[in-house]
Write a structure and sequence with these properties.
Length: 190
């Protein structure tokens, strides 16, 4: 996965785990007297408790703050309030899109998933990005704007079309019959 240069954070880093945790919970309050408090709120911190120490968590938070992904405020009671920024939310959404995978079941349900789209030329960059993402997910192109896939992927397609802002231009279909069925079975090794 490639994150744009402007973000300067490794996708599987502790900082990203913390940022994802804050994105899920909204605002985090950290008790300065009990550093384990943050662990109970953030799944990322729970997973890293055994591997990372509190100093590394603080360093990651500072890293996130310096890059504008979170704001950290010292409260009157001595605790800290950590809030994700718009820039932080944008980074999380991008990472989630770039790491999006479609689970492959052991047995195929014999249903073909077909994605059809007609994105206007004015949004050609989004159309190309959407096509490239379909290809990277393992879809096969039937025609220029018609792609096929053998496994459940409705939710993933809804997420992608929303991310690229082309919701009204994308149609998702499921069918048991596709012309040249044997060709497609061979192509997907079914």
């Amino acid at each position: 996965m490639r994150i744009p240069e402007r973000f300067h954070i490794k996708p599987k880093s502790l900082a990203i785990g913390i940022l994802k945790g804050i994105a899920v919970t909204g605002i985090i309050l950290l008790a300065t007297t009990n550093p384990q408090f943050g662990h109970s709120l953030l799944k990322a911190w729970e997973r890293s408790r055994k591997r990372k120490n509190w100093k590394e968590v603080r360093k990651s938070l500072k890293h996130l703050e310096e890059r504008g992904f979170v704001t950290i405020e010292l409260l009157k009671d001595g605790n800290y309030k950590v809030v994700i920024t718009k820039k932080g939310n944008k980074l999380i959404k991008q990472i989630n899109i770039e790491t999006l995978q479609i689970p492959k079941p052991e047995k195929w349900d014999k249903i073909w998933r077909v994605v059809i789209f007609d994105v206007p030329n004015i949004a050609s960059q989004r159309r190309h990005a959407f096509s490239d993402r379909l290809k990277s997910l393992g879809f096969a192109m039937i025609q220029k704007s018609v792609w096929v896939y053998p496994y459940k992927c409705h939710e993933e397609i809804m997420i992608l079309r929303n991310w690229y802002g082309i919701d009204s231009h994308v149609t998702y279909l499921e069918t048991r019959m596709v012309e040249d069925d044997n060709y497609w079975k061979t192509k997907f090794k079914l």
